[in-house]
Amino acid sequence: MSDTKARLLVARKFxxxxxxxxxxxxxxxxxxxxxNWTGAxxxxxxxxxxxILTSARTKYPAEVINGLPANVRMLATFSVGYEHIDLEAAxxxxxxxSNTPDVxxxxxxxxxxxxxxxxxxxAREGFEMLAGDKWLAVGGWKPTQNLGTGAxxxxxxxxxxxxIGRAAAVRARAMGMEIHYHNRSRLAPDLEQGAVYHDTPxxxxxxxxxxxxxCESTPETHHLINAEGIALMPEGAIxxxxxxxxxxDDDALIAALETGRLAAAGLDVFxxxxxxxxxxxxxxxxxxxxxxxxxxxxxxxAMGFRALDNLDAFFKGEEPVxxxx
Length: 325
Ligand code: 8YV
Prior knowledge:
Helix content is 36%, strand content 15%. It is built from 13 helices and 12 strands. α9 links the parallel β7 and β8. The protein binds 2-keto-D-gluconic acid.
């Protein structure tokens, strides 16, 4: 780093160790309130900075990118997902963009299994049964109480076999599941590890007793899991989503959960989060979490350090390792 520190707009309060490094290496303007800045909020504060460290909560469509003052030369997002940034607009404006892949793979794969088991073993109903002595009232344990679906020997369909999909597959294989997947392109055998490739999402849905979503949010994957897709799935299948909410059509999923066409869903991400479809609040076979896939101390620190590594490289005149634009 040069003697004069670059100026950085820090759009959230990131974990303490990340903030300490940012404050040591950059002249920072920090979002002390840690609220969700809009694009306009960022533009209003970016008049004097060289770069922005953002979360995925702020959206950067073309009008925001083009509204950023010319002094802003880099945008580093504290996320692997980058659907909140218009990369074409960034390229056209000469704004360098980076993300934080790799470092959250294992944490998100862990939450995938948490959701898969919680949904299939009816953890929400079990948990709620204990409150207010309801379990006591029904006489406690029964041979047929709260029976779920076993994972052993079942087909897990993985939609999007990138880093996180493959890490989820490793865990599911250890549980005795048979892995099938769809991906834009077929993986090499060393990455496939015996998983069965399907060249269309529809072909995968037909065999998926469990389905775990790991693809990116793009116009092509928007509402990919809709009424037609669900109709292809085996009766009583289970859907898990740790990727992005908009890949699922909530109306279709909720209808299938209400009728039992799908046995359960485990969801960490939602359309329009944090203002999610309120029907999920009371749907007993939906096990829901507030987007905690990457929420471990180790992972959030690693994400912050990775974002700062990219910024450091840029200001040293090097290529940021995770450059997207
Ligand atoms: C983050 C994520 O929690 O990295 C991603 O793409 O979805 C999560 O790990 C969130 O996006 C924070 O910016």
